[in-house]
Amino acid sequence: MSGNPVLDFMGRALKDIYMNRVSDMVFPIAEREKVEHDHAAIADAIVNGEADEAESLMRDHMVEYVKYAEQRHPGILDQVIDWR
Asked: Is 80 exceeded by the pLDDT of residue 74?
């Protein structure tokens, strides 16, 4: 959504990592409504050109996800990604 090809490249790389390593680490169904709300708010901020708001919302969202991953999948964030 950013229109930035470098950011798009990084996003695609992160998506590949997600799909291959952590796709089974999705939030439980009871928490998915909040995740969808977070994603919509981030997208709205991007579309509206509110860069600071988008960054803040995304940072908060990722901090929550890291806490979730650390609690439910100990050690996953310590794994090394082989880019080959």
From this structure: yes
Longest dimension (CA), the chain: 37
| Residue found by looking up tokens 């909040």 in the block | 34
Q: Integer distance in angstroms from the first to the last C-alpha of the chain?
A: 27
Q: Identify the pLDDT of residue 44.
A: 96
For CA atoms 35, 74, 9, 48, the dihedral sign is: positive
The pair of structure tokens assigned to 43 is: 């997208």
Q: Give the C-alpha separation, 21 to 30, whole Å.
A: 22
Q: Please, which residues have CB within 8 angstroms of residue 77's CB and are 6 or more apart in sequence?
A: 66, 69, 70
Q: How far is CA 12 from CA 5, 51, 70, in A?
A: 10, 20, 23
Q: State how far the Cα of 18 lies from the Cα of 37, in Å rounded to an integer.
A: 20
**Structure confidence by residue, pLDDT tens digits, 36-56:** 999 999 999 999 999 999 999
